[in-house]
Amino acid sequence: MTRAFNQRISDALMERERSNLLRSVQTLESGNQSVFHKDGQSFLNFSSNDYLGLASSSELKHSYQQAIGELGVGSGASPLVTGYSAQHESLKSALTEWLGFDTALFFSSGYAANQALLLTLLTKGDLLLQDRLNHASLMEAGSLCGADMKRFRHNDLAHLESLARAERSTLAVTESVFSMDGDLSDIEAFVGICQTRGMLSMVDDAHGIGVIGDNGLGACGISELKPEILVVTFGKAFGLNGAAILCSEEMGQYLTQFARHYIYSTAFSAAHARALLQALSMIQTQHWRREKWMELSAMFEELLSDCPEYVSTSTPIKPWVVGDSARALALCSSLKEKGVWTTAIRPPTVPRESARLRITLSASHQHQDVLMLANQLTRFSEEG
Ligand SMILES: Cc1ncc(COP(=O)(O)O)c(C=O)c1O
């Protein structure tokens, strides 16, 4: 029996290695900032989702430190036991008022929030329609939840509509900003179709919240129509970690009663909730952070748009598509030698032959950082 497991494990690892798809954990010796240290070398970091530069902001660090001094470091329990505090409640009020939902439930990660929603809501006989590029957390929960899952072509809402079935309880799910491509979905059209076809709508706003829309309102800031369920995560523009599901009062009550990821998991701490509230206030008021990455984005475009690997996006996510996995790895290594850190994203995370560098810009980058990156990318592109 053990031999069978050993064989399976070694076969899978060998196959990953053979196809240049082996992944490895990277240990940083400093925090995840725009410049970090690793193995005694410093690197410009173009591989972080800290789009607004909040993760290392002195203002947010100070607020978190103060909250820890006052409230301690751990919540000690799940929300329904003794893990939910007045700080969570304040965060809930601020978030629901800002985004226009009745209620919010907090989770330790976006992965858990997405899993909780799909696994709690859907059952055998239901129909689940998902954009084919939705995140792994949504796809995995979709295949485990018992519903009949169909994937519509990326951002093809006519295809979504053609899959709708009036007689079946249906949930349709899209991301607002697609994590590996940096492109946007048309939230208003998506929600509109869901409403006319009697489908429940859900938007994963992990990469949109804090970044797109007026005042960083995310998906809710670019659409007149709101989805019934919105998932926001705190590990990207918020600079921290955790997530929330925003929904109606009744849906919130249902999830509170039945969502196992909510009921049986330790809540993030009160100090963390206080820091998230501070991050929210910075997102709402510090417009210069969004203006900064937009300025860097315009510079990136001006310097690189003639290269065939360049993909134009209106978000801080800048895919640099090279196609072949080995070539993506080679580019990554060559950038590292020059002190520039990017991550090669390879299948199965992205479709075959579309290996890429997932480059991300942040308000914490400087103009000379983008210039340095662009010079290296241009050199590699010209060398073919
Ligand atoms: C679209 C999307 N949803 C959900 C998640 C999961 O969020 P978390 O990192 O908080 O688990 C991610 C993570 O990268 C994501 O890109």
From TrEMBL:
Protein's UniProt keywords contain Acyltransferase: yes
Protein name as it appears in the record: 8-amino-7-oxononanoate synthase
Keywords of the record: Acyltransferase, Pyridoxal phosphate, Transferase
UniProt cofactor(s): pyridoxal 5'-phosphate
Domain Aminotransferase class I/classII large stretches: 43-376
EC number, as in UniProt: 2.3.1.47
Molecular function GO terms recorded: 8-amino-7-oxononanoate synthase activity
Transmembrane segments: none
